Amino acid sequence: MRAIVFDFFGTLTDPAAETARRTSFTATAAALGVPAAAFWTAMSTSFPERATGVHGDTRATLREMARRCGVTPADDQLLAAVRVQHAGAEQVRRPRPGALQLLDDLRRAGFRLAVLSDCSSELVEAWPRTPYATRVDATVFSWQERHRKPDPRLYATAAARLGVPAELCWFVGDGGSREHQGAHTAGMRPVLVTNAAHPHAAALRDDPDTWRPPYAIDDLTALPTVVTAANVPT
C-alpha cells in the first residue's frame, strides 16, 4: 500500500464543526436579505446540484439560491453574501484535532496523499489558502469533476493523480455518499472513521454507506495503527 485517499468533511475536518453549518447559512441568508428557514431549505435540498457545479461559482450559486427564495439581491448584497458564505465555510472546515500532524507524519512515512471530496464551490475556491493544501499530493473535488461519490471515475482520477494503482491505495472516510462501497469497487482498501465521539455528525452525512468496510477506527488519529500494521510502505 503506497497511498491514502481521504474524504474531507467529517474525516480531515473536525466533526464538531458541522454544528456551525446552520449558523453559517443563517448569516449568509441575512446578507442576501433572504428568510433564514427558506435559505436553509434551498441550500440543503440543492447539495447534489451544488456539489457537481450545476450553478457555477459561489456568487452564481448564491444568486440562484436567493432566486429560489423569491429574492433578487443587489450586487453589493451578493458580494457581501459571498464573503459571509466563505467565512462560514472556513469555520465548518476547521481541521480535526491532530489531522494536520497526521498528514505530515504519513507523508514522512512515504505515503502519497490525496483528498477526494463531495463539495461545493466554497472549498475549491478557498483550497490553496487552507492548511491542508500543502500537505496532500492530489485533490479530486466533485464540483470540478461534475460527478459525486461513489462514481468510479472519481476514485480512478485520484489514483491517477497520485500515480499509484487503485489497489495500492487506502481510502479513509466517515461513510457519507456510499464512499466506501465506491472505494471497494474501485479496488481501494477502505477504512471507516466512525466518529464515535460525534454521533450528531454521522446524522448529517448524505447518502450513508450500508456496506461495512473491513477496517474501522473511532477517530482519525488511530489510522497509523491500521496502515502500519497492514503494510510497510516502500
TrEMBL record:
The keyword Hydrolase applies. Coiled coil: none annotated. SUPFAM superfamilies: HAD-like. One of its GO terms (molecular function) is hydrolase activity. The keyword Hydrolase applies. Keywords: Hydrolase. Pfam families: Hydrolase. This is Putative hydrolase of the HAD superfamily. It comes from Paractinoplanes atraurantiacus.
